[in-house]
Design a protein that fits this description.
The chain is mostly helical and 110 residues long. Helix content is 64%, strand content 0%. It has 5 helices and no strands. The chain is elongated and about 80 Å long.
C-alpha cells in the first residue's frame, strides 16, 4: 500500500483501515505462532502499512485510536514527574569503593 494512495482517502476511511490492519497484524502473529502462516514477511508489511496510516492520521490532526484527547498534556505531566522523582547526580550518594585487604597488598610487596 502506497502512501500516495492513502493520502487520497478520508479520515473515516483511514480509521477503518487502521482498525482492520491492527486486526490483521494480530491475526498474522497468531497464525505465525501456531505455524499456519506461510509467508512471514506479511507481518512486517502489515505493520508498516499500519504505521503509514497512523502517521497520516496524526498529520491530519485526527489522531489515532490510541491518541486520546489531552494525551499530550498527560505526557508532559509524566515527564515532569519523572524529572522531579529522579535525584540529580549532585544529590546522589557517592559510591563506596571496596578497601583493599592487607593480605593482597603484602603479597604484592613480597
Amino acid at each position: 500500500m502506497k502512501a500516495s494512495d492513502l493520502r487520497e482517502k478520508s479520515v473515516e476511511d483511514l480509521r477503518e483501515l487502521q482498525a482492520s490492519l491492527a486486526h490483521d497484524t494480530f491475526q498474522n502473529r497468531l497464525k505465525n505462532f501456531t505455524n499456519r502462516l506461510d509467508d512471514t514477511s506479511v507481518i512486517n508489511k502489515t505493520k508498516r502499512d499500519l504505521a503509514r496510516v497512523i502517521t497520516l492520521l496524526r498529520e491530519r490532526g485526527a489522531g489515532g485510536a490510541s491518541a486520546a484527547p489531552g494525551a499530550s498534556a498527560k505526557a508532559d505531566v509524566k515527564v515532569e514527574a519523572i524529572a522531579v522523582a529522579t535525584p540529580s547526580p549532585v544529590e546522589a550518594a557517592p559510591k563506596k569503593t571496596p578497601k583493599k585487604s592487607a593480605k593482597k597488598s603484602e603479597a604484592k610487596q613480597s
